[in-house]
């Protein structure tokens, strides 16, 4: 019988990259509460930074509280936290014209022993590295990825498209939004990668897999991914969060 996962460790690194003047990515996690969040903000002036930070803070605050009180099942609590974060960003933008249209992508991982739920909005991703093989768990909410899924564009055409930055779902730009939700069972040794598109635009999946196939501490591995993305161009902000499941 497989050994159950009983604990997790995590590390994260973020960098503004080589081209952007500021960092609109944000991340946060609580190993105790089993909550891990990465967001990539968008909007003029400092609006993207505000949106991503608001989302991370709200999701962490609400899920920490819900987990301590054990008031709701984890998936329902996670969806509720995402809804609250959306409302917080949208209402903040409504009150301040300078922040109009701000929003953020979001990828959240929540854990309860070996049970894992992933929620995402936009094109920040979650991957699973299991027994040396990398698998993308989330699907991008972007115009080009939806064209690829419909067979109207090849992955290479999507990578070169001038529309590759257009996302079709974001947190905070509309009064309501629903995340995609994925559930799986973690195994000891699994590594989850939560990242912004500043990483995945620069590094193909094969390169990410190769960089994760090493015996290094999580913080060193996260830094290694970010540095590789910077060397490959670093055109955007880059965030890499790694979460390891252990017996």
Task: Please give a structural write-up.
This protein is of the alpha+beta class and 247 residues long. Helix content is 34%, strand content 28%. It has a single domain (7-139, 169-246), classed as PPM-type phosphatase domain (Phosphatase 2c, domain 1, 4-Layer Sandwich), CATH 3.60.40.10. It has helices at 47-69, 74-95, 143-149, 155-160, 197-200, 205-212, 218-231, and strands at residues 7-15, 25-30, 35-42, 103-104, 106-112, 115-121, 125-130, 133-136, 180-185, 191-195, 238-246. Strands 2, 3, 4, 5, 6 and 9 form a 6-stranded antiparallel sheet that branches. A 5-stranded antiparallel sheet has the order 1-11-10-7-8.
Q: What count of helical segments does DSSP give?
A: 7
Query: Which percent range describes the beta-strand content?
Result: 25-35%
Predict the CATH topology. Answer: Phosphatase 2c, domain 1
CATH homologous superfamily placement = PPM-type phosphatase domain
Low-confidence stretches are none
Q: Whole-number radius of gyration?
A: 17 Å
Biggest sheet record:
6 strands, antiparallel
């Amino acid at each position: 019988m497989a050994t159950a996962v009983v604990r997790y460790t995590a590390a994260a690194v973020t960098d503004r990259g080589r081209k952007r003047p500021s960092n609109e990515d944000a991340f946060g996690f609580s190993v105790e509460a089993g909550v891990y969040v990465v967001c990539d903000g968008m909007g003029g002036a400092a609006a993207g930074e505000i949106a991503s930070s608001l989302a991370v803070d709200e999701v962490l605050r609400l899920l920490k509280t819900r987990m301590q009180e054990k008031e709701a099942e984890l998936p329902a609590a996670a969806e509720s936290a995402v809804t609250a974060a959306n409302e917080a960003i949208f209402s903040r933008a409504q009150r301040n014209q300078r922040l109009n249209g701000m929003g953020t992508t979001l990828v959240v991982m929540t854990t309860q022993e070996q049970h894992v739920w992933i929620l995402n909005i936009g094109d920040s991703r979650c991957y699973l590295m299991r027994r040396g093989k990398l698998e993308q768990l989330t699907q991008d909410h972007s115009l080009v990825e939806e064209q690829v899924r419909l067979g109207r564009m090849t992955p290479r055409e999507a990578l070169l498209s001038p529309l590759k930055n257009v996302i079709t779902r974001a947190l905070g730009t509309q009064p309501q939004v629903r995340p995609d939700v994925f559930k799986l069972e973690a195994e000891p040794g699994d590594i989850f990668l939560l990242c912004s598109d500043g990483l995945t635009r620069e590094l193909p999946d094969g390169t990410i897999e190769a960089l994760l196939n090493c015996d290094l501490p999580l913080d060193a591995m996260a830094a290694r991914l970010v540095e590789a993305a910077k060397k490959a161009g670093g055109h955007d902000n880059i965030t890499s969060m790694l979460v390891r499941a252990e017996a």
